[in-house]
DNA sequence: GGTTCTCGATACATCCACGTATCCGATACA
DNA sequence: TGTATCGGATACGTGGATGTATCGAGAACC
């Protein structure tokens, strides 16, 4: 994938990485729109000159960041799927645990959880405003969602269960409930570790014996 | 409600109204963060002087706007409830129609639909960042949501149906699915009039005969 | 009809972020 | 070790948004 013969120097690679890390932090703290390029550079220990030598604009940075995050989520998802496949979790409420596990894979770090769900919101917003960004962004999202569908399908089959609705709809509903729950949790300030009971309610509705 | 003896001159009232209208427009078009106060004033046909004589900051404007909108949505909701109460819609798929009708009441204008769902996102974001805004904003949202719960409860009772889960959870799920569907619709560019089939799928899951 | 006060307009000073053009040190390569 | 290129730093000019202090017209009130 990506441009084949376009070799990137390791030095450049590192500074790009540090800039992305810093961007994640600063975006999470101050918001994507509100965050100045300067602030990102400062957090990364660089000057604006370095930034403009690596990215053309904040949009480019934004897309590179989501690219990296989506990629990380995809690999995390695959790893989780491998772990779940052969030997399902507890026998108690296997689906709940499994779903929770899969969701945790996509959104692992509880500290980053908050930052990420807020940033995801903002990313979506940027995409909603800029059609050019929208196409790239929604492609990324689609990939992630499809992967989720596949993983859950396989998981359900392994567990001898099935969704009451199409798996695409199921995933859409799950994601919607997940995000909604997380946001209201953030708003009300309740820092529950669990992704709200809403998901589990929905899972009970969605999952039926095969 | 509000400050009792603090009389507001009719003149002031009008300019405030025009500023709010303009803010709705400009916010929808350019985004809340991106929109400059100046732009709002220009759209309203005023100068910045007028603005600062009516609002202390953009946050104040924002809160006044959401206040007005939620109020409007609440009254629309009540009106819809009255219409639905005595004589349910079609006999075909009464719940679907009813739910769609209620949702349409909360989010009526198809043209404003897009603007509003984007703005709602952005509002939530502002609230997520500013704790002071969050308390006021989430109070508004809670009011609206509770009203929705009541309306749907009454509606279901009238139709001889019931939710498979608690009505609060049901409303949360419905709202989540609604927003998620709307946003993905916006992202993919499909300008469906219907609020996506996701809602109907969910309604079928949620609603059972009493 | 005159006086007062309200409210929006005008003008000003400030600040901050942006993007670019240029420079200089370090690294790679011979 | 000498040289050329790469990549980040420095410095500059610019534009736009903010908030405030002041002014003047017109409405309200007697």
Task: Please provide a written account of the structure.
- 2 copies of one chain form a homodimer.
- Chain A has helices spanning 10-30, 37-44, 48-54, 58-84, 94-106, 110-129, 131-159, 167-188, 196-206, and strands at residues 161-163, 207-209.
- Chain A has 210 residues and is mainly α.
- Chain A has 2 domains: 1-55, Homeodomain-like (Arc Repressor Mutant, subunit A, Orthogonal Bundle); 58-209, Tetracycline Repressor, domain 2.
- In chain A, helix 1 (10-30) packs across helix 2 and helix 8 (167-188) runs antiparallel to helix 9 (196-206).
- Chain A is elongated and about 60 Å long.
- The A-B interface holds A 31, 33-34, 118, 121-122, 124-125, 127-129, 134, 137-138, 141, 164-166, 169, 172-173, 175-177, 179-181, 183-184, 186-189, 197-198, 201-202, 204-206 and B 31, 33-34, 118, 121-122, 124-125, 127-129, 134, 137-138, 141, 164-166, 169, 172-173, 175-177, 179-181, 183-184, 186-189, 197-198, 201-202, 204-206.
- The structure holds a DNA duplex (30 and 30 nucleotides).
- Chains A, B: Residues 36-55 bind DNA.
Task: Give me the secondary-structure topology.
Two copies of one chain form a homodimer.
Chain A: H1 10-30, H2 37-44, H3 48-54, H4 58-84, H5 94-106, H6 110-129, H7 131-159, E1 161-163, H8 167-188, H9 196-206, E2 207-209
Antiparallel strand pairs in A: 1-2
Helix pairs in contact in A: 1-2, 1-6, 4-5, 4-7, 5-7, 6-7, 7-8, 8-9
Chain A binds a DNA duplex (30 and 30 nucleotides) through residues 9, 11-12, 15, 36-38, 46-54.
């Amino acid at each position: 994938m990506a441009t084949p013969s376009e070799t990137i120097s390791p030095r450049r690679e590192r500074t790009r990485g540090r800039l992305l890390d810093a961007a994640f932090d600063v975006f999470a703290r101050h918001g994507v729109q509100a965050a100045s390029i300067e602030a990102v550079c400062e957090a990364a220990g660089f000057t604006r000159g370095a930034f403009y030598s690596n990215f053309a604009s904040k949009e480019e940075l934004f897309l590179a960041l989501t690219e990296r995050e989506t990629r990380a989520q995809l690999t995390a998802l695959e790893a989780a799927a491998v772990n779940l496949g052969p030997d399902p979790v507890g026998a108690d409420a296997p689906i709940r645990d499994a779903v929770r596990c899969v969701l945790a894979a996509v959104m692992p770090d509880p500290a980053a959880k908050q930052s990420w769900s807020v940033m995801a919101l903002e990313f979506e917003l940027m995409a909603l405003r800029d059609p050019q960004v929208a196409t790239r962004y929604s492609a990324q999202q689609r990939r992630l969602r499809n992967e989720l569908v596949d993983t859950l399908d396989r998981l359900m089959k392994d567990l001898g269960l099935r969704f009451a609705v199409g798996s695409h709809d199921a995933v859409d509903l799950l994601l919607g409930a997940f995000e909604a729950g997380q946001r209201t949790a953030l708003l009300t300030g309740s820092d529950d570790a669990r992704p709200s009971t809403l998901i589990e309610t929905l899972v009970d509705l969605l999952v039926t014996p095969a």
